[in-house]
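Provenance

Sequences were taken from public entries as deposited. Structures were produced by running a predictor on each sequence independently, with no templates supplied. The record for FAD-dependent oxidoreductase from Lentzea alba is shown for reference.
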Amino acid sequence: MRTIAIIGASLAGLRSAQALRQQGFDGRLVVVGDEIHLPYDRPPLSKDFLLGKVEAVPLADQEDLDALAADWRLGVQATGLLSAREVALSDGTTVEADGFVIATGGVPRTIPNTHVLRTLDDAIKLRDAFGAAQHVGVIGAGFIGAEIASSARALGKDVTVVEALPTPLTRVLGAEMGTACGHLHGDHGSTLITGVNVDSVNVDAGINTRINLADGRRVDADVVVAGIGTRPATGWLAGGPVKVDNGVVCDAGGVTNLKNVVAVGDVANCAGHRAEHWTSATEQAQIATRNLLAGETVATHTNGGYVWSDQYGVRIQFIGRATNDVRVEDGSIEDRKFVATYRDGDNPEDVVGIVAMSNARLFTRLRRNLK
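Predicted structure for FAD-dependent oxidoreductase:
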């Protein structure tokens, strides 16, 4: 291959560029990103950035970026994969390449009259909105919603979190551990409302915002943030040669139905699974680029990605998969400091997942035994 184009300039895209150079690719490298910013770290946006403790955290310094010798096309969107060898861009140009890495990530699900937090520009708008606000409403009690709520409380705001499911984080951690994480909101003065949908969010006179719940209740807030998940950013691939179904369809090595096109990060539906985690994006980039250069799938990655979340001064860590058989191995939920393991239903002695709250040391030790 003489030219490889990476569509997406965030974590997965940057790590793919670095992996290609590390693996000996010395051809032309084009990186297309819809934001004007060079790659930055997203996790701090919902925490220290909102608190004003840090500004944007670069994922690589200028010297490292220069070493990639890449052609950065920033502030430009991919509008279509015209063929297996050409992509169209929003500025009217096209890029021809022998291989493509699709790393376009996800797009936040939105509710009218609310903020979202996905990009640096989103974070800047939200931080500015927090300035004069007293009451912050958060829709969604997943990791991102909980982190935003935590930051708002740290800034002295009154916080109400609305979650449609009966228990926060059930889809990731299961009901018991999700309940344990949900307790953190009440512990630190936030109000958590669960098991009710949001009908709408209204703005009165452009100032006061009201969350209208399906059961008739209303939550008044100065600022409302929706943290209700993302959808894969695949709209630009519609009608093109790459198969799309809940993301870019690829095998466990990130290879699509076109051998010269791979997918990594939040947009990749690898063997029926999308891993929307920071660590997964890094791991997938190493594997997928290796397969791209080989022209076939010579390596695969697992789906047991590691995820962490900092909420109200507590670090929550999770790896693997959640099951109904969950056992607290150390500490206690009541103390908000514990490690629990998830066991395989057919083989109860096998640990298939681990979750920890404020116990990083034991978590690290136990994860070595993960099946």
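Residues 321-369 form one domain.
The chain has three domains: 3-107+230-294, 120-226, 321-369.
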